[in-house]
Amino acid sequence: MSNIYSKVFSELEKLLARKEKEILFAGIGNILKRDDGVGVYITSRIINRKNISALTVETSLENYIGKINSLSPDILVLIDCVDMKLPPGSFKLLDINQIQDLTFNTHNISLKRMSEFFPMPVYILGIQPEDIHFGENISYIVEEIAEKIINQINRRRSEERRVGKECRSRW
Asked: Is 0.70 topped by the overall pTM?
């Protein structure tokens, strides 16, 4: 795995390790436009737990502003297909203030502008698409990286369960 991927996985791991913070992953995208649905693909496979949850918003983040604010997470991570002019499958974890020059494929309002409606810190987990034409399946390269992201998020959950069982078995 290249250094840039290792760096992003490391940044995601640091975020996930903040057990005192509730993190909400919101999956954005159009599932009928192949790789544009990667955010939905990921959030539909995240296993919710005490401090990590997922919400699938598809193309209507603006319709979920009230719900997200009522859930009151400490950190909001928007997962979306982002044209960053990088090779397909590349991904970055960015603070919302870093996205001014990035193109988002299916939004009426920019995600940066939308983030102004949220009181918590907002990040974008952007994944470079290969194909955003009409179709239901995401490309192999984007699916491969999505599975790695899902595994990292869900692995943290299984590690916490294992540690919890070890602690209980000692008593």
From this structure: yes
